[in-house]
Amino acid sequence: MKWLVLILVALPVQVLAQSKTVLPSEASIEVTIADDAPVPFTREMVLLTIRGVYRRHITREELIQPLFDGFSWAQLGPDSWSEERINGRKYKVLTRRMAIYPVEAGKLSIGPFVHRLTLTDENDDWFEHEIQSDPLTIQVAKAPATQDWWFPVRKLQISDQWSNAPDQLAPGEGVLRVIRLEALGATPEMLPPMPELTSPSALIFAHPEKRLVELTPEGPVTYAFWRWTIRPSNDTSGIVEPLQFSYFDTVARETREVTISPQRIAYGTVTQEEGPDRSEKDVAQAKLLGGPGAAIASVVFLAGLVLGMSGHKVAASRALQRFGIFDPLVRDLQSCAKTGRADGLRQAASAILHRDGPSSRRLKQMQDFDRQYFDPKAAAPDLKEFARSFLKN
């Protein structure tokens, strides 16, 4: 008897739940902005949360967003569906996160989001039903006047990295500098352009800028990589001048200045072992050996000659490698010059400089070569002439 009463009580509720009559408590959607959000400036990120709550079985659904007149926007990942218990009852919950960026000041309106649902009735037939959110109005302030790039961002992290120690370079060697920007709340086009790195006494070759974006629930995170290859232009050192730019901290609501410090670029000091002082007064007069001394010297000479003939040729072999065809680096240099491989030729020349030590003439040749090789407007260097004069000096 108790089971029959429970079935009779539950039956009207179940029929009502699957009828074509959809109550507001069974399907609703709203769009919200954080309660503590300040009045945004133009091009500043505003986070929207679209949240739908449902107690009906949904066969199909489509969320249609408004046109966003006066805004640019980005959806922060796919829609998420979950189950929540609200007032003791289970609900299906839809969540979408969006970042919108007002492009003009004033009072801007966001139209309703429409959720088009396919539900089932008491006969298990499908029918269409739409719900929509209330429209929103946002007051937007005009961005403050700045001398440079207007760059509003929620969080900015900067790193300055070098491929090797910039003040301990090998002769003819360059160094790669990479400045990495990580900006939360900014899309790639919002970041300032790559600045010009300058130095009165160094050669600087800029690489193409790279920008990447990652979508997170807290907003887009844009990564920018500014890259330069730098070489001293003389035998001593050079200074790379500092970089400066500003951004607007949207959390602290203030403008912040960024200064990336200057850096010294230099070849490392090459020191050679100094032998003992061989002044004339310390050198004893040479005398020819005679008698027993001459005999001992002959034996020592013959023993050394036998050892040399038996394979102890390491020092001699290394010395021979420094002459013409016996030197593998010289062979590489000449081969690259003949085949037109400028990058290989430069690597071989740098290796020779590193091995043999700095030479003012060779360093000057490397600087002239780099100006022609890296400057797209300059004439291509004559590889054969470079190899000939480089080996001659």
- Helix vs. strand class: alpha+beta
How many β strands by DSSP? Answer: 20
Order of helical and strand elements: HEEEEEEEEEEEEEEEEEEEEHHHHHH
Number of domains: 3
Mean pLDDT: 82
Q: Approximately how much beta-strand content do the residues carry? A: 35-45%
The rounded distance between the terminal residues' Cα atoms is 112 Å
Uncertain segments: 1-16, 270-322
By CATH reckoning, the class of the largest domain would read Mainly Beta
Helix content: 10-25%
Shape: elongated
Q: Could you say what the CATH architecture of the largest domain is? A: Sandwich
**Number of helical runs?**
7
- Largest sheet report: 5 strands, antiparallel
CATH-derived topology of the largest domain: Immunoglobulin-like
Question: Which oligomerization state do the chains in this entry correspond to?
Answer: single chain
How much is the radius of gyration in Å? 38 Å
